[in-house]
Amino acid sequence: MTRIFSGIKPTGHLTLGNYLGAVRRWVEVDQHRADALFCVVDLHALTVDHDPGRVRRLSRQAATLLLAAGLDPGRCTVFVQSHVDEHARLSYLMECTATDGEMRRMIQYKEKAAREQQRGGSVRLSLLTYPALMAADILAYQADEVPVGDDQTQHVELARDLAVRFNQRYGHAFTVPRAVRPQVAARVMDLQDPASKMGKSHAATAGIVYLLDEPDVIRRKVMRAVTDSGSEVAYEPDTRPGVANLLDILAACTGSSPEELAEGYDSYGALKKDTAEAVVEVLRPLRERHGELCADPGQVDRVLREGAERARALARPTVDAAYSAIGLLPAL
Ligand code: AQP
Fold first, then answer.
1. NCBIfam families under this entry (predicted)?
2. What are phi and psi of 51, to 5 degrees?
């Protein structure tokens, strides 16, 4: 059976981008067709300036939202990365397999390092080695597929390269994974800055729809979305990214194509109104279920405990074998 691994970072409240670009597919497709592991990758949240209490709260919230969105622990494994030591153990072997140049070429590293420096902060070493940990996340489970949005495909490519290199040097240890991207809404853009993706860790929040935003807040954010100077609704992502983003979001929420939708509108106002309502409706059941799960915290605890146990049992033999293959003396 195909094995899938994917993760979500507790660096902020989950957004519509996370949902349309990743989580919805995990729920509707991936957990039904494969042996799927979904992980709150909390170690990755420590690669930039962080508040310990906030990371803990966001980790819990992310896990609860994944269940609220419809991940079913009877069908898939939901767990927290730091609960399974094998991620950090294997990450070191990946650092010993990757080169400094490969890490520095990563677009996300360059962007985030620049952001940290602009803020006057220093760049953590773990930001540079982040892709080694991500490769470990994937390879520890012998994952065949990694469903990700556009922003993460470069990291999955590197994980592939590291798997191939390790296998060639030390004997077959890892499945070589591949990135799988959703057809629609692979990249949801910020409503106020359609040149940037809607990212949960961004400081300016007016263009970001959070999964737990109240319906009226969602409506306000969508109605205030930046569009373009023209007035005719057309799907032209390169020249009119603001309108294209709204059409992509509406298409993802309604299962239509953005080009077809564009033909049905003659004003930005009507497009925004329908987009806002579509987003509110898509998120409504998720918000309700989140409320129910918060009232029963024992249920989330149980899912995370059992998820970590299963993940550990899957990862340990692979990581032990990799330790031995690379030349380390097995513990007695
Ligand atoms: N805007 C987006 N559109 C489509 N997919 C997205 N994803 C994230 N944003 C969008 C996908 O959601 C999954 C989990 O994302 P993540 O936690 O790795 O990244 P993030 O939400 O983008 O978090 P940050 O902290 O805001 O990100 P950065 O690191 O960019 O600062 C992934 O499959 C991702 O592709």
1. trpS
2. -110, 120
